[in-house]
């Protein structure tokens, strides 16, 4: 049961890393004036992100995407802290906790058939 709960979490975290890295590559090109070469790994990373979201066991894409939103928010704050050296404040962390709770409800809530 526990392993089944962690499998989608691992996929969501991998998808978040891929999406954030891909988006950051575009950010670096446009906002940090890096070489256009940054776009190549960015596009590969964004394709990996899209592929990873299809690995979520859900009958509906919208539900998988909605649950992913909470993971993405928390992962973005981790990126903020680890990659950009800006520590999230209490409001960032409170908001992320609320979103993660929502993701758990969406992903694991009982469904009627």
UniProtKB/TrEMBL annotation:
The membrane topology of this protein is: Multi-pass membrane protein
Record field: transmembrane: 9-30, 36-53, 65-82, 94-110
Source superkingdom:
Bacteria
Annotated keywords: Cell membrane, Membrane, Transmembrane, Transmembrane helix
- Pfam families reported in the protein's UniProt record: UPF0060
The record's listing under InterPro entries reads: EmrE-like (IPR037185), UPF0060 (IPR003844)
Q: Name one GO cellular component term.
A: plasma membrane
Location comes to: Cell membrane
Q: Which family does it belong to?
A: Belongs to the UPF0060 family.
Protein name per the record: Small multidrug resistance family-3 protein
Provide the taxonomic classification: Bacteria, Pseudomonadati, Pseudomonadota, Alphaproteobacteria, Parvularculales
